[in-house]
Amino acid sequence: MTTLLASLNTLATSSKKQAQGAIFHFNNVAFLRTRLLLDPTTPIDDLIGKATQDALNSNYRTAKAVYFDANFSPLIQALGDAGGRRDVKDKLARFFDALDEAGDRHRVSKVLMDDDEGKEMLQEEVVRLVVPALKRFNERNVQTSKSTSRFSQLCN
């Protein structure tokens, strides 16, 4: 199991497209964890030692964190502290470009295809990560952001 997890990590980190590699890695580690540790119909977790279970859970948490960082940090970073009106518009443009890229990437590379519950949990976490950043940005830049209806719709 340790060798398999190391191989998956190597394949993901050697990818030229970091965000897609992160999706690949997260999907595979989540699949293994779900099938081997969480699925009550496969009692294989009785055969897997505690250290291996801990390694699988740890790799899952790490893969999830890398997935979030690679796919959603650009959204948050685009909304950093704004200066003037022009800077706000540039930041919003970068945010929406990053949002479009993330959407396109997720249309091609599905995340947790066979795990509806896990998918729903991820969606909620993304909302909890991105929407507050949008709201803070909106509050700091109310005058400029009123003119961007797409931005205002996301914040509500």
Question: Can you tag this structure with a few keywords?
Answer:
156 residues, mainly alpha, 0% strand, elongated
Structure class: mainly alpha
Number of helices: 7
The Rg value, from CA coordinates, equals 19 Å
Tell me the number of strands: 0
Series of H and E elements: HHHHHHH
What does this structure look like?
With 156 residues, this protein is mainly alpha-helical. The chain contains seven helices and no strands. The protein has helices spanning 2-13, 18-38, 50-78, 85-108, 116-140, 142-145, 149-155. The radius of gyration is 19 Å and the shape is elongated. The model has no long low-confidence stretch (mean pLDDT 85).
Explain the layout of strands and helices.
Elements: H1 2-13, H2 18-38, H3 50-78, H4 85-108, H5 116-140, H6 142-145, H7 149-155
Helix pairs in contact: 1-2, 2-3, 3-4, 3-5, 5-7
